[in-house]
């Protein structure tokens, strides 16, 4: 069963990949359809309709939509189709036969796609019939639903068996949100950045429209809320105002059976365990309810909640929401409650809310000031954070005898976070270590020192501190997690790659344990990425950021760096051009300068005009907060020198050699070998010798690559250089592979080694194709002329040169001349390789 496909013309709501996945599922011969899952207002219907617009005109589309009314009637959505067939079936089997005949008669020889929207509101009998039709290849089934619940379990069986694909919509990414804000001609003034707007709305298109355009008619929200009894609406409003309410409080406000009914309706969800809480399922519903609560009604709701709440049991989101709501209404809250609420918000990375709550509380203590400094630092306002911290430090120093060790440990840790890691002499809290005895306080300070040392390039000192905390099992698990991450990164950088990655694996497992906070994300995730990136574990480097629930921009930038290192600069350039110009949010990994250097390198490597040749060398380590990282500084310099090497190889080789020397002095042998590797392939004899020594101290993939390249460059035989090029390709260093293969080809020609020359030429072609044509299908059109693209299409269709000459009214000799130009431009040898390359690109689209 095949379906003709028309090309996707433009990005739709930021769901380009999702639309492509749905379209592929509807056309793949081994699939019978696609299941699209997403919250209310997330864009399921838009995505499905966008995918259906791309199918051929000869495809028949039947559309069904579930509803509360239809769910209660057997064969509800199929009633019209069955009645037109002139029969009312008594069971599913009979209905299957009738519907199959009706579809076959309507569609005749065309294919049929059945779209079922709101499938969780469809009766089981109708869904059973449609699933059987899809399983027997009578139809292609496209299903959209908010959540998996009966009758969706029937569709789930197809998905679990591999016959149907599943696409989960998680909201628009930050790039799409930024484009939506720009296209609206407005600014989301109550948000500090696009990242915060994205976090607040979860990328929900309906909620974004409500925030940006002030839409009051929210049909999806109305559809959800009309099922709720009027007397229960105040309960939902309380949940919306606080974010969550403890279960024991809820049972004082309404009957348990009412809670169960709202759960069954998909309106609220209840967590399990000792601290169970009730929350609204959809953020769009919560925002809608909050926007409709007037001040007088808000006061009534809060007083009703205040009578039912058990203050001693408040914690987490219920505590934060209750405290913030009470303060907004003018009801003062005790210091302990405010302090706990602000600390909880900071631990979740909700810095703007934490800062606002601390300011509104009216309390002024060192503990709350310190939490406020942490919040504004997280928002990127380091100047304010330092002003507040100076007051805290002055107060703590004046009354050091009355200050708890825990507060002193936190103050010293904040001092480390607000100080430039290149200037340890500016630290003002070295005296605190002598006053700490409890393992929790000692571990907190020591692991923050380890992070400080690693960022400043003092890797051996950071390794010792991190190892001490990691080996001390009396420390908190989250402190040992941060220590394991710093220890792993230090080991990788100093040459013990295998050992370092083992520490990273263990730390990543610890990251899944409960109780982790925003500090663990800020401290550990950069080390996860750093260690895997330096070790050449490219998939792990992507995964370390993508799985951490972080900024989409950050994930895209990390992916672009990996793309460049693995020989896909065209794809990386598309990403960098889209991400870097946008306002950069505060992030736990500041690699914006690295991104700018990488973009310039990708532009130069692809021969594209660069926007600015001096933009990368400036503002090294600038940014106001402790965003300097010795690794980021090194990586940016490495990209800049690799860019220079494309036009001034001798000068670049000397500076690369010097860069490696500077990192060896720090003990960063893995970083030094990266610089010497680039200098050695440019012909620097000193770097070649140093690389051989570094290879003896390195293990893992970087050590193997350094060893084989240094040996091949020293020996000079074509076979050794070809083997080194293959090792570079296995490592992912396609540019290095291409350079080594070119050297091997020259040596093979000189020594008349035809076999080595052939292998080298093949490596050159593969690496150059990866480098030049690795973007999402646009490079072929920019490289070849219209006639050349037509000739490529003819070759893919199996036509000979004579047939092509006759079709284009040209001589065979002219056709062969054009084919030779195509071969050279696409780095292939003959028609067979050309077909393989074009087929590979077609699969990647």
TrEMBL record:
GO molecular function terms noted in the UniProt entry: DNA binding
SUPFAM superfamilies for this protein: C-terminal effector domain of the bipartite response regulators (SSF46894), P-loop containing nucleoside triphosphate hydrolases (SSF52540)
Domain of life: Bacteria
Boundaries of every HTH luxR-type domain copy: 781-838
SMART domains, per the entry: HTH_LUXR (SM00421)
One BP annotation, GO: regulation of DNA-templated transcription
Record's keyword terms, sorted: DNA-binding
Protein's name in the database: DNA-binding CsgD family transcriptional regulator
Record Pfam families: AAA_16 (PF13191), GerE (PF00196)
């Amino acid at each position: 069963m095949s379906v003709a496909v028309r090309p996707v013309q433009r990005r739709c709501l930021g769901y380009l990949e999702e639309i492509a996945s749905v379209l592929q599922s509807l056309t793949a011969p081994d699939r019978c359809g696609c299941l699209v899952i997403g919250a209310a207002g997330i864009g399921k219907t838009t995505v499905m309709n966008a995918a259906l617009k791309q199918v051929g005109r000869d495809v028949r589309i039947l559309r069904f939509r579930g509803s509360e009314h239809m769910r209660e009637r057997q064969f509800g959505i199929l009633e019209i189709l069955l009645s037109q067939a002139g029969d009312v079936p008594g069971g599913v089997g009979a209905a299957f036969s009738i519907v199959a005949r009706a579809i076959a008669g309507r569609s005749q020889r065309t294919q049929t796609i059945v779209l079922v929207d709101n499938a969780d509101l469809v009766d089981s009998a109708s869904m059973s019939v449609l699933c059987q039709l899809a399983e027997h290849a009578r139809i292609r089934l496209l299903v959209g639903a908010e959540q998996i619940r009966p009758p969706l379990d029937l569709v789930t069986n197809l998905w679990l068996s591999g016959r149907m694909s599943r696409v989960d919509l998680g909201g628009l990414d930050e790039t799409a949100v930024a484009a939506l804000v720009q296209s609206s001609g407005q600014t989301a003034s109550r948000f500090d950045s696009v990242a915060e707007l994205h976090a607040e709305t979860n990328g929900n298109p309906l909620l974004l429209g409500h925030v940006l355009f002030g839409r009051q008619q929210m049909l999806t929200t109305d559809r959800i809320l009309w099922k709720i009894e009027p007397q229960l609406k105040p309960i939902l409003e309380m949940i919306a105002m606080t974010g969550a309410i403890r279960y024991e409080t809820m049972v004082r406000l309404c009957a348990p059976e009412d809670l169960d009914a709202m759960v069954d309706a998909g309106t609220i969800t209840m967590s399990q365990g000792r601290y169970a809480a009730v929350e609204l399922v959809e953020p769009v519903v919560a925002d809608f309810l909050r926007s409709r609560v007037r001040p007088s009604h808000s006061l009534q709701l809060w007083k009703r909640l205040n009578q039912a709440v058990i203050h001693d049991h408040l914690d987490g989101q219920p505590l934060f929401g209750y405290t913030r709501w009470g303060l907004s209404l003018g009801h003062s809250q005790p210091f302990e409650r405010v302090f706990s609420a602000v600390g909880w918000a900071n631990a979740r990375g909700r810095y703007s809310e934490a800062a606002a709550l601390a300011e509104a509380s009216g309390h002024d203590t060192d503990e709350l000031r310190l939490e406020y400094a942490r919040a504004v630092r997280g928002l990127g306002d380091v100047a304010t954070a330092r002003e507040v911290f100076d007051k805290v430090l002055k107060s703590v120093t004046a009354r050091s005898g009355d200050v708890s060790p825990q507060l002193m440990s936190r103050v010293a840790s904040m001092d480390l976070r607000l100080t430039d890691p290149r200037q340890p002499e500016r630290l003002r809290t070295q005296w605190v270590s002598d006053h700490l005895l409890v393992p929790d306080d000692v571990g907190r300070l020591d692991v923050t020192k380890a992070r400080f040392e690693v960022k400043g390039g003092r890797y051996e000192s950071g390794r010792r501190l991190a190892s001490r905390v990691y080996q001390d099992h009396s420390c908190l698990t989250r402190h040992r997690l941060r220590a394991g991450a710093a220890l792993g990164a230090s080991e990788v950088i100093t040459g013990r790659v295998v050992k370092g990655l083992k520490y990273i694996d263990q730390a990543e497992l610890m990251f899944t344990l409960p109780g982790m906070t925003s500090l663990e994300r800020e401290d550990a995730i950069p080390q996860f990425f750093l260690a895997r990136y330096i070790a050449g574990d490219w998939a792990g480097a992507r995964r370390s950021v993508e799985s951490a629930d972080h900024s989409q921009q950050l994930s895209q930038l990390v992916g672009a760096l990996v793309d460049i290192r693995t020989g896909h600069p065209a794809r990386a350039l598309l990403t960098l051009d889209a991400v870097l110009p946008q306002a950069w949010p505060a992030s736990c990994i500041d690699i914006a300068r690295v991104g700018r250097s990488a973009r310039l390198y990708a532009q130069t490597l692809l021969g594209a005009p660069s926007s600015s040749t001096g933009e990368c060398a400036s503002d090294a380590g600038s940014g106001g907060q402790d965003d300097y990282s010795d690794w980021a500084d090194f990586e940016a310099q490495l990209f800049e020198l690799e860019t220079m090497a494309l036009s001034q190889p001798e000068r670049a080789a000397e500076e690369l050699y010097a860069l490696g020397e500077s990192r060896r002095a720090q003990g960063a042998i893995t970083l030094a070998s990266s610089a010497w590797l680039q200098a050695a392939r440019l012909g620097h004899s000193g770097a070649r010798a140093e690389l051989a020594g570094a290879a003896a101290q390195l293990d893992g993939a970087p050590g193997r690559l350094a060893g084989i390249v240094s040996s091949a460059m020293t020996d000079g035989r074509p076979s050794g250089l070809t083997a080194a090029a293959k090792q570079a390709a296995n490592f992912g260093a396609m540019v290095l592979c291409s350079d080594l293969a070119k050297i091997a080809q020259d040596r093979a020609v000189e020594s008349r080694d035809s076999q080595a020359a052939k292998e080298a030429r093949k490596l050159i072609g593969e690496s150059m194709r990866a480098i030049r044509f690795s973007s999402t299908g646009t490079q072929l059109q920019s490289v070849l002329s219209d006639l050349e693209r037509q000739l490529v299409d003819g070759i893919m269709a199996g036509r000979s040169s004579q047939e092509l000459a006759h079709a284009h009214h040209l001589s065979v000799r002219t056709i062969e001349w054009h084919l030779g130009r195509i071969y050279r431009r696409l780095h292939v040898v003959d028609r067979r390789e050309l077909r393989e390359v074009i087929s590979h690109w077609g699969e990647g689209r």
